[in-house]
Amino acid sequence: MPAITKLKLSAASPDEVKARLKELKSDLVEMAEGRRSDPMPDDAFADMLREVDLLDTHLTSMAAEDYRSRLNVLATAGARPAGAGMRSLGDLFVNSEDTAEWIRRGLPDAGFSVELTGAEGQQAARFLRAGYRATVTEWAAGGPQTPDATGSEYLNPVGQPIAPVPRQARLFLRDLIPVMTTTLATVPYVRELNPTTSEQATGGGAVEVAEAGLKPSATLSFSAQQASPTVIATTLRLSKQIFEDSPAVIQYINNRLPYLVKFREDGELLNGNGVWPNIPGITTIGGVQSQSATVGQTAQTIGNAIAKVENVDGDASAVVFNPVDAWNMFTLRAVAGAGTFDAGTPFSALPLTIWGVPTYRSRAYAQGKALVGDFQLGAMLADREQVNVNVYKERYADTNEVLLICEERLAPLWLRPDAFVQATIA
Predict the structure, then answer these.
(1) Per-residue 3-state assignment (H helix, E strand, C coil) for 58-111
(2) Does 370 fall in a domain?
(3) If you ran DSSP here, which 8-state letter would residue 154 be given?
(4) Counted domains in the chain
(5) Helix (H, G, I), strand (E, B), or coil: what is residue 331?
(6) Same domain, 61 and 125
(7) Which of 194, 259, 323, 396 suits 213 as a labelling partner, its CA being 20 to 30 A distant?
(8) Is residue 60 part of a domain?
(9) Could you tell me if 426 and 249 are in contact, meaning their C-beta atoms sit under 8 angstroms apart?
(10) pLDDT score, position 302
(11) In the structure, what pLDDT confidence band is assigned to residue 306 with cuts at 50, 70 and 90?
């Protein structure tokens, strides 16, 4: 140990180091101002400065060691030999016999755990809950769960987990519909009833008028409607450590949760029964036209439905299919077509349209049906709150977990139900 301090630092306590620093401070204050500001101080003053620097560095090191020992280090049971290093929980875990067996043979059928006794066991349980052995099921349920026997739900403790590619649909139904924002809890709108009937001369529509003749009055029938934005949401609880230490996993979750909300949104826009908090879906509201099936001829059935959309002054902008129905249609072999298909050759890029109308394929739509519509004319979405993800890091402070909430708040406005035709496919 340097001779510039009278303390034996290897045996000195923090209080002794602080006391010596206080003495040096008092001595320095008593020195003349000239000596303290001299760029070439004398040897005694220089030695005092070196001792202050040495003691300050040593005190900082002692404080850091004390902090580490209380925060991340688990003491072994019983008395610890003088000078013996303290073992971290990670060291105890990795060097346990159970872990070694896991590395040699893989995850056993009965699951996997590390048995530690006494204080070690308590710390190990806390450590495992914190995410080292957390499962997807445990994140979602917020407590220890029985893992998949195959180990498929585990995030193995090997560096940074590589997350799978987030699920993404090619298109969502809202991409077909005009969207407006609103701050209202209830959105009023008007729906015109029987618009094609009121356009006829017998229904009050426009007619030719002779000179000095009486001009007819239009007869328009309206229905006052209200749309109440509803919340579509999902939540996820996961360990704070996973949230802070695994950016790839968090990036995956940040894409996965909005997908779940948007997929449910598609299902509600198509099939919602309108019983609060469900929103009314296009297939369940009144006024939608129908088209019966031409057996074995899906394309012909869709063509007939497009005609009905145009017959109410609409312009079909999309056809909604279940993917199975869509590909059954695309892969139908042409009659006497020498191996070709109605949709064309499968070895070139196909637009996957029908009668020039784009197809929208979604698992949210049931098989055996097709929805043809003018989505620009017939509908509008009112966004009260767009899809967002919020993180609440202190929600489960007692279990060291983070709460993620993904939600949106929206309402559909079905302005012209007759601009949609639901066709049966057979």
Answers:
(1) HHHHHHHHHHHHHHCECCCCCCCCCCCCCCEHHHHHHCCHHHHHHHHHCCCCCC
(2) yes
(3) B
(4) 3
(5) coil
(6) no
(7) 194
(8) yes
(9) no
(10) 95
(11) very high
